[in-house]
């Protein structure tokens, strides 16, 4: 089983002491990446909830740079000490409450201190044990813990807040602080003649007129830099000379603090306050250089700004392409990292700020206008290589290897310069991959402004099978006149594709030329059915039949000759998805609200095999068998049922695996974040017949597993997939009710067809009445019909 797609940007990363490794919080684990290659080396596994804090124990001497120790804190309420070179868990401390942030000052102020039993940590926790339900009591607590014990007591509480806050510590370990709306609360960790372990922290507060987003401490001087929601950067100099000064230092600074302090508000304990303004939106990133000469800031506009602290002059690293979240220095002064909101970490060469390489996770899904929710097809799969093509923000398609959990390349479908607060003007509504993964097709819609403009584009991209760097081959503007494209599907064996539109037609496209550089796609045929909107399409496993959904009916076509072969009966609501069950005769159709339906049709008999009232998010089928799987959303009535609460706890979807025409699922897995999710079968690494199933949820987290392996049954409840449900009182029957006896019904149907047809006096009035699905064969109907019209001659016995 393979899991991936975790966020790399939920917490700040940290470099190892030799600057050769980068440690990143990835959900419940910590992933260790190589700085030289950007690939994952190992991971620290043990926490049972997201890791919120990661602290690498700094080296006090050059010889200690080979040491690889770190501390982690998690929402599972534990603090853990690791050797990440192994990796090996050295110690676990239970705090009993979720930990949102943690700092250990003595690691910075006393780096020679290696005895973990003498360390003191300041943590930000959430303690709701004394809070009554619905009350507005303070849940966030800043507490002081002694790490000598494995089970921590309540600890000393320094401050209570409405919710847990992130703690920021100075590079010297002398101060730490938190943000609270328009204020910065700062504590010291050292008292005269004492040590950090026995210190009684003093507190001071700095005020501002706007909400503050981030702040940072100067490495050597008493300077604090902060950024607010309007894009301003504030610099407080000489903070804490009265309230946080030590002994003789108080006497030396009295003459200074009695003077007028320019820019300082509300009598704050600071010598001066300066404001800089370049950012057009909120500032999220602040960090000083190691020598304190420069200040690095960043925000929503995706630009890293470098300020000269004494002059205010600045230079820029522009067009990073996503809002910035963190900027971290490494022990090597020529290396730093910047963390972006699109789940990417860029490694920078300093001081030129050149991007050396990027550690890329799956980018988050795009924000779609409400009119496209549930209709856009934003994930496609290359079954042979295990690569997924995912639509992301900034009009991109990201190619991501699900088996190795790393990004491969990106395709910029439509050019865009990232600007904060930009309205969505273009929507990538669909992406599809050919069976061998060498061709990709995308559709985009340029939204009309005040009813003026608007443009639909269909694009074909080509690449070599071993190289997932796609280049644009063909672009078709307005492929279906003014109508939008509802679906794209590729032929399984030929260079052919079909696009359907809400305007009432579908078009078959073929590739002219075998050379990648000179090939182009042209329209081969156009089809329609009673001017009904064409909402979905799929090729059969051998490519001889094309199924196109004409709103509520399914039309079957010969794709080569563009001839209508047959029409299947109507569904309750418009069909949104079609999929042939491998190379079998079964066709799977899914309809959405207001009456969702999953139906399976027999194309050889032109009849409905079975159906369920389920809302289906995705459908996939095996290539060489009749197995198929669907991703269904669990109805609210089932989730609210007391008898099924344990099955559906925190889960909103289910993957159902079927085999051909059998309406009883082979397996069921409950999943989280099913809405907007996708599924696909992937070929096995060694044996292609050993299929794997990939599930990508609505947040682009994913799991790849073998549907029939024992590992799936044992581990599916730990992550995205839930326990397998089998038939019985606690499985499929409890979820969907008892199934009718289909074998008995089939037997009754066969017996009824075998019964001789008895004609009535007026047979033409009843012989053709009833559902077309229940008609006897045409040969039997015609014979009995004509026989009923003829007068039978009675035999004469002599």
From TrEMBL:
<feature type="repeat" description="WD">
    <location>
        <begin position="205"/>
        <end position="236"/>
    </location>
</feature>
<keyword id="KW-0698">rRNA processing</keyword>
<feature type="repeat" description="WD">
    <location>
        <begin position="276"/>
        <end position="317"/>
    </location>
</feature>
<protein>
    <recommendedName>
        <fullName>WD repeat-containing protein 75 second beta-propeller domain-containing protein</fullName>
    </recommendedName>
</protein>
<keyword id="KW-0690">Ribosome biogenesis</keyword>
<dbReference type="Pfam" id="PF23869">
    <property type="entry name" value="Beta-prop_WDR75_1st"/>
</dbReference>
<keyword id="KW-0539">Nucleus</keyword>
<feature type="domain" description="WD repeat-containing protein 75 second beta-propeller">
    <location>
        <begin position="397"/>
        <end position="634"/>
    </location>
</feature>
<keyword id="KW-0677">Repeat</keyword>
<keyword id="KW-0853">WD repeat</keyword>
<dbReference type="InterPro" id="IPR057644">
    <property type="entry name" value="Beta-prop_WDR75_2nd"/>
</dbReference>
<dbReference type="InterPro" id="IPR001680">
    <property type="entry name" value="WD40_rpt"/>
</dbReference>
<dbReference type="InterPro" id="IPR015943">
    <property type="entry name" value="WD40/YVTN_repeat-like_dom_sf"/>
</dbReference>
<dbReference type="InterPro" id="IPR036322">
    <property type="entry name" value="WD40_repeat_dom_sf"/>
</dbReference>
<dbReference type="Pfam" id="PF23769">
    <property type="entry name" value="Beta-prop_WDR75_2nd"/>
</dbReference>
């Amino acid at each position: 089983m393979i899991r991936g797609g975790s966020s790399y940007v939920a917490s700040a990363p940290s470099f190892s002491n030799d600057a050769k490794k980068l440690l990143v919080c990835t959900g419940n684990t910590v992933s260790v990446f190589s700085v030289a290659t950007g690939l994952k080396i190992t991971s620290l596994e043990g926490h049972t909830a997201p890791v919120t804090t990661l602290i690498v124990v700094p080296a006090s001497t050059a010889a200690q740079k080979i040491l690889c120790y770190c501390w982690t804190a998690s929402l599972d309420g534990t603090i853990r000490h690791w050797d990440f070179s192994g990796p090996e868990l050295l110690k676990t401390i239970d705090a009993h409450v979720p930990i949102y942030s943690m700092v250990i000052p003595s690691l910075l102020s006393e780096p020679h201190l290696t005895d973990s039993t003498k360390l003191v940590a300041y943590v930000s926790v959430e303690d709701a044990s004394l809070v009554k339900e619905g009350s507005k009591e303070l849940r966030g607590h800043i507490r002081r813990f002694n790490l000598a014990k494995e089970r921590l007591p309540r600890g000393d509480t320094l401050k209570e807040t409405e919710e847990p806050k992130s703690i920021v510590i100075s590079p010297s370990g002398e101060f730490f602080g938190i943000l609270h709306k328009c204020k910065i609360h700062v504590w010291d960790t050292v008292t005269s003649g004492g040590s950090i372990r026995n210190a009684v922290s003093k507190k001071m507060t700095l005020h501002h007129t706007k909400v503050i987003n981030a702040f940072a401490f100067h490495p050597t001087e008493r300077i604090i830099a902060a950024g607010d929601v309007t894009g301003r950067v504030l610099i407080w100099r000489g903070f804490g000379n009265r309230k946080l000064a030590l002994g003789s230092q108080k006497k030396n600074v009295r003459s200074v603090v009695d003077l007028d302090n320019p820019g300082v508000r509300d009598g704050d304990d600071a010598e001066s306050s300066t404001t800089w303004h370049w950012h057009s939106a909120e500032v999220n990133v602040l960090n000083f250089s190691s020598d304190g000469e420069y200040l690095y800031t960043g925000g929503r506009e995706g630009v890293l700004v470098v300020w000269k602290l004494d002059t205010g002059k600045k230079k820029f690293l522009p067009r990073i392409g996503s809002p910035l979240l963190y900027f971290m220095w490494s022990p090597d002064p020529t290396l730093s990292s910047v963390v972006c909101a699109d789940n990417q970490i860029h490694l920078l060469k300093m001081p030129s700020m050149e991007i050396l390489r990027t550690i890329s996770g799956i980018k988050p899904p795009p924000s779609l206008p409400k009119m496209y929710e549930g209709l856009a097809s934003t994930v496609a799969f290359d079954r042979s290589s295990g690569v997924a093509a995912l639509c992301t923000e900034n009009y991109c398609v990201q190619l991501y290897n699900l088996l190795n959990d790393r990004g491969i390349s990106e395709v910029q479908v439509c050019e865009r310069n990232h600007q904060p607060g930009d309205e969505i003007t273009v929507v990538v509504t669909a992406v599809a991959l050919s069976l061998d993964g060498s061709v990709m097709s995308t559709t985009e819609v340029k939204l009309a402004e005040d009813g003026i403009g608007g443009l639909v584009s269909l694009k074909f991209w080509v690449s070599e099978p071993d190289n997932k760097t796609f280049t644009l081959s063909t672009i078709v503007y307005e492929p279906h006149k003014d109508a939008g494209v509802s679906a794209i599907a590729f032929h399984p064996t030929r260079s052919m594709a079909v696009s359907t539109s809400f305007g009432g037609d579908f078009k078959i496209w073929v590739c002219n030329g075998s050379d990648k550089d000179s090939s182009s796609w042209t329209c081969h045929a156009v089809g329609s059915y009673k001017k009904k909107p064409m909402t979905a399409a799929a090729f059969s496993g051998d490519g001889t039949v094309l199924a196109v959904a004409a709103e509520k009916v399914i039309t079957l076509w010969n794709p080569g000759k563009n001839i209508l072969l047959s029409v299947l009966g109507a569904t309750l609501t418009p069909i949104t998805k079609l999929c042939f069950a491998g190379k079998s005769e079964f066709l799977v159709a899914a309809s959405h609200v207001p009456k969702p339906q999953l139906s399976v049709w027999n194309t050889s008999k032109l009849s409905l095999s079975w159906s369920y009232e389920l809302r289906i998010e995705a459908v996939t089928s095996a290539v060489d068998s009749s197995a198929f799987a669907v991703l269904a959303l669990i109805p609210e009535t089932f989730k609210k049922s007391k008898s099924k609460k344990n099955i559906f706890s925190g889960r909103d979807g289910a993957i159902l695996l079927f085999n051909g025409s059998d309406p009883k699922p082979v397996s069921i897995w409950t999943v989280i974040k099913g809405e907007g999710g996708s599924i696909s079968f992937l070929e096995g690494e060694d044996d292609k017949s050993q299929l794997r199933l990939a599930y990508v949820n609505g947040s682009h987290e994913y799991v790849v597993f073998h549907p029939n392996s024992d590992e799936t049954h044992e581990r599916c409840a730990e992550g995205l997939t839930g326990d397998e449900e089998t038939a019985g009182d606690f499985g499929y029957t409890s979820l969907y009710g008892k199934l009718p006896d289909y074998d008995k019904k089939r037997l009754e149907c066969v017996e009824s067809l075998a019964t001789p047809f008895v004609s009535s006096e007026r047979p033409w009035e009843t012989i053709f009445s009833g559902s077309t699905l229940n008609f006897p064969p045409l040969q039997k109907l015609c014979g009995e019909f004509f026989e009923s019209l003829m007068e039978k001659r009675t035999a004469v016995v002599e």
